[in-house]
Amino acid sequence: MNYKMHLGTTFFLALAFLAWLKAGISLETVAWLAIATFSALLPDVDHKDSFIISLAKSAVFILVLALSFKYFGFTGQAIVVAVGGSLALWLIYSAFKPAHRTITHSLLFAVILALLLYLYVGWFIASAVLFGVLAHRVEDFFYDITGIGG
Ligand SMILES: [Zn+2]
Q1: Cα of 30 vs its chain's centroid, Å
Q2: 123 Cα: distance to centroid of ligand 1 (angstroms)
Q3: Which member of 38, 112, 117, 127 has the greatest number of CB atoms within 10 A?
Q4: Measured in angstroms, how far is the CA atom of residue 127 from the centroid of ligand 1?
């Protein structure tokens, strides 16, 4: 399933879940809805051409470039180091990336991620991420059996 379908489907699933809980509209519920929706993109970190990896590539390059400028100043050397550093990070990602739809699409991944988030940032974010990651798996399953959303 593509990222737009994951975002759209998870948004409505999360909205239905909040309505079922009779959560009402507040800044907290809107934040929870946004976190849950965007968390539905996380399992596809195992796919080189996924939207979340495209975002991550840009974010990593900007971060490495900023660090490079800070260390070397605004020089050509800084740009060369940033490009080389980003390329090295891409090679490391490519070498250790799991196969598509394996560990990052498992219940174990969802539970461990939620547990770590619960320990470090609390239940609010952990529950939203858990919802988004589980919704992704359900949506992939729905796509597999129907072909809708490809
Ligand atoms: Zn997926």
Answers
A1: 18
A2: 24
A3: 117
A4: 19
Distance from residue 42's CA to the centre of ligand 1 (Å): 9
> Rounded to an integer, what distance in angstroms lies between the CA atom of residue 51 and that of residue 8?
14
CA distance 41 to 63: 21
Which residue in this structure is represented by tokens 């070498």? 95
Q: What is the pTM of this model?
A: 0.82
Q: Distance from the CA of 43 to the center of ligand 1, in angstroms?
A: 6
Q: Encode pLDDT of 61-99 as tens digits.
A: 999 999 999 999 999 999 999 999 999 999 999 998 988
Q: State the DSSP code for 85.
A: H
The model's pLDDT over 107-144, given as tens digits with 9 standing for 90+, comes to 999 999 999 999 999 999 999 999 999 999 999 998 88
24 Cα to the center of ligand 1, angstroms: 30
